[in-house]
Amino acid sequence: MARLEQDFGLHIGRRKLFILRKDLGLPSVRKNPTTAQDRAQAVIDIKAHDLTGRWGVAQVRQRLANKGVLLSRDECRSILHDHFDEEFDTRFIRSKGAIDRIPLNCLGPWHQIHCDGHEKLNSQALEMGIVTLPIYAFKDQFSTFVLTMQVLPNIRRVETIGHLYLDLAKDYGRIPLQLIMDMGTEVGDMIRAQAYLRSKAAPEFTENAWPSTVQVQSKKNTPIEGFWRWKRSSEGHNIREAILIGRNNGLFNLNDPLHVNTFNWLWPPLVQSRLDEFREYWNNHQLSSQKKKLLPSGTSPRQMWLTPDSVRADARDCSVVIEPETIQLLREGLGGMDGRAKAYSFVDPEFLAEADAALGDLNYPDITLSNAWDVFIAVIDILSR
Length: 385
What we know:
The strands form 2 sheets. The protein has a 5-stranded mixed β-sheet with strand order 3-2-1-5-6, with helices on both faces. A two-stranded antiparallel ribbon has the order 4-7. The protein has helices spanning 2-8, 14-24, 36-47, 57-66, 73-84, 87-90, 123-126, 158-172, 188-201, 222-248, 257-284, 301-306, 324-333, 336-344, 349-361, 372-383, and strands spanning 112-118, 135-140, 146-151, 174-175, 178-181, 213-215, 320-321. The termini are far apart. It has 3 domains: 1-31, no CATH class; 33-93; 112-384, 2-Layer Sandwich (Nucleotidyltransferase, domain 5), CATH 3.30.420.10. By secondary structure, it is α/β, with parallel strands linked by helices. The chain has 16 helices and 7 strands.
């Protein structure tokens, strides 16, 4: 109701909302137009992407809801027990000792955005030669909303992170009041861009009173560091398991340049699509209520992000609106769009065109974690002729 009022100026109560939903015939868990058989098949289909069996009832329900398939918690649990019963014991949470934590607090969305890199899919982790799939993400402290999560060729390159930050600023048309990061060397261009953009758009916030960037130790960058555990346990293990099939089954030759280029052409877009789907799941899933937490909980990150005052009366949007022209000016200092293409590209344009043509010869199959290596072998066969 808060979002209806914000987006359309429509102020209604719960009774009117229920009447409208009934008149429009909108589906719900109780009034579901799909059959029990269809819902069970939908669960089985989406679990085909969960190669390590780490998606429980909540994750499966939210991922299906994102695709328009609604089912109750009890029904979802029953279907999972019927078809994937052995996974429940492996997901049992075992105590490993508590860690003392200090509750965090901030003014609202965009007050403090945390950023960090994740290298559990880099070359050292995969042990497949020089191929690497590191990830960089930005996450809001107030709402836990994930703004972006991008797989990149090299997240330790300062220009790459600079371009990623400018993409974020361009996509949202605004920047945070403060940007929180660790002390890595790759953040230099991002720090300078954040300081410049904020000083131009909001000079009333001085660096002494409101530092535009704050660098902390990785162990203290908890809003984003803690998020990686969720990403790794729900999606990361599936991706890694699928990639390692190529190594363990002898499908990938790390010394063959054609294999390396084909890997770099095929896997980054596939991993990015999985990251996008996980980000959509995360931003829509309901957070557990936490009485000791100072920040709001008990609803979805998207709800807290879009209508912060609906979850805490004194919350406010702290974003700083910026001009696109200023972003373009900073982009030119990093090599312009050519520099951005270099920062984002895993393969050169010539190989990209050849591999895309080979995929066309295969009638553009839908590439998934389950068939990726089959497509890899087929493309290698065509390019080797």
